[in-house]
Amino acid sequence: MPDKRNQGWNLEDTYQQLPDFFYTSVKPAKSDQPALDVYNEKLAAELGLDSSHLKNEPELFSGNHLPEGSKPIAQAYAGHQFGNFTMLGDGRAVLIGEQVTPNGKRFDIQLKGSGKTPYSRRGDGKAALGPMLREYLISEGMHGLRIPTSRSLAVVATAEEIQREVLLPGAILTRVAASHIRVGTFQYARNWGSKDDLQALADYTIARHYPELVKEENRYLLFLYKVAEKQAALIADWQLKGFIHGVVNTDNVAISGETIDYGPCAFLDQYDPKTFFSSIDHQGRYAYGNQPGIGAWNMARFAESLLVLIDDEEEQAIPKAKEAVEAYVKSVEGYWLDGMRLKLGIVDKSEDDKGLINNLLDLMEKYYADYTNTFRSLTLKQLDSEPGLFQSTAFKEWYQLWQDKLQNQSAPIEEAYQLMKRHNPSIIPRNYLVEEALTAAVEEGDYKPFHALLAALENPYAYTKEQEKYAVKPPEQDYQTFCGT
Ligand code: AMP
Ligand code: MG
Predict the structure, then answer these.
(1) pLDDT digits over 5-14, tens only?
(2) For the segment 329-364, what is each residue's pLDDT rounded down to a tens digit?
(3) How many domains does the chain fold into?
(4) Which end of the chain is more exposed for a tag (fewer CB within 10 A), N or C?
(5) According to the annotation, is 184 in a ligand binding site?
(6) Nearest residue CA, atom 7 of ligand 1?
């Protein structure tokens, strides 16, 4: 039973075993009249926290009171932002500790929007309520979709007004992640630290996330391979579910393989690989179809930062690192292809699958079909949602080929449809639904739409009647997202 006094907190601070070059001790700023607007009781239970007390603890999730055992820090890191290398660090986040759960798992508990740190540069260290609710909703939606992600434990609204283009109500998000070690953390060590600093970071990260490598002699190269493999799986998953991260800078790439840093992310409606929503992504660098390639670019930056550990001789290290990045390229394609097979109920793999899959995607693009609903309709055998696509001759021909394939598989066709149900979400956090929920919450203090959407997204593969209203296609509009600042 959790101790009432400490509410189940079991905080450690192993990151602070690293040289202090990697962090700065910092206290969250005091906030005015915090109110606990959203609280994730299920996640709290997984973390071993006692909600009977915590759900009435806005002071704690605002950073006004720190939990027992907390030694708060801001982490240092660098990153390539839209291709430009720069020093960054937690400018508006404080890591209050690493919660070790009853199952022995370790999670960073971080307050986002809790005031300035030495890494804030010109920023105010604060966050607005809308973007923090958005991160909560989408990260929990991603978890429901079974995509590796940081989680959200709480959102506290403060009485403060945050200066953006207009004044906005302030908020603090409690973010939970396997860790916040990023590609950018390694770039920081590589650029401004000693080789010992870099090695200390690599050894720490390997022990925390890839303990099976600890005793391997060439562990740094193997580590690069593992991280690249995780990234490949993650980005393939984004593609399969239609998720556009929006700002896959190297500082937003977690070594754990989780999705982190929900800013201008959004889900694809109509299928078009060129889609991007972020208002600051002028060139579409992080467009949907570019994500697998950007993953390779980011892995190349990660590889560069590890070169001195991979081999004393740079000339030896470079070809080894290149191979690892090439392995990523193969993996991301492989994960995607396997995932697409599952989305189409294909269990007997064949060479022709890729052609079959790409033909469908080409037709979806040509007929402006909705990505999620096309697969949903195929899964439900109700070809009504995308009339343009489904009534075309080209699609009918494709459908026949696909059905022939399913009929002639080693598994019964019903099994194929069951598989499709497990891999094609019936609902996603659609942009217009997210906006409606956030507008009601922020402008009217009405959290009902937010909670209803959150609940529906808990199991997007359920195909229940109640979820149907969330599968409705969006009204046509130009959707733009803004960085969650
Ligand atoms: P992001 O775009 O959220 O990945 O953030 C990029 C960098 O900007 C990180 O170092 C953040 O900590 C920092 N940052 C973002 N917003 C703020 C803010 N309001 N105040 C201070 N730093 C910020
Ligand atoms: Mg970031």
Answers:
(1) 579 999 999 9
(2) 999 999 999 999 999 999 999 999 999 999 999 999
(3) 2
(4) N
(5) no
(6) 88
My answer on whether 176 and 201 are in the same domain is no
Has 125 been labeled as part of a binding site?
Answer: yes
Q: Are 32 and 160 in contact (CB under 8 A)?
A: yes
| Cβ–Cβ < 8 Å for 185, 75 | yes
pLDDT tens-digit map of 1-52: 444 557 999 999 999 999 999 999 999 999 999 999 999 999 999 999 999 9
Domain that holds residue 196: 184-342
- Give the global pTM: 0.97
User: Which residue in the block uniquely carries the two structure tokens 């022709």?
Assistant: 352
On whether 242 is known to bind a ligand per the annotation, the reply is no
88 Cβ inside 6 Å of ligand 1:
yes
Distance of CA 333 to CAs 224, 233, 292, 378, Å? 18, 9, 8, 23
Residues 141 and 216 in one domain: no
Q: Are residues 243 and 320 in the same domain?
A: yes
Active site residues: 251
- Among residues 221, 232, 365, which one has the least CA distance to residue 294? 232
272 and 238 in one domain? yes
- For residue 35, the model assigns a pLDDT of 97
Whether 158 and 193 share a structural domain: no
88 part of a folded domain? yes
Pocket residue to mutate for ligand 1, from 92, 163, 182, 183, most atoms within 8 A of Cβ: 92
For residues 320 and 224, state if they share a domain. Answer: yes
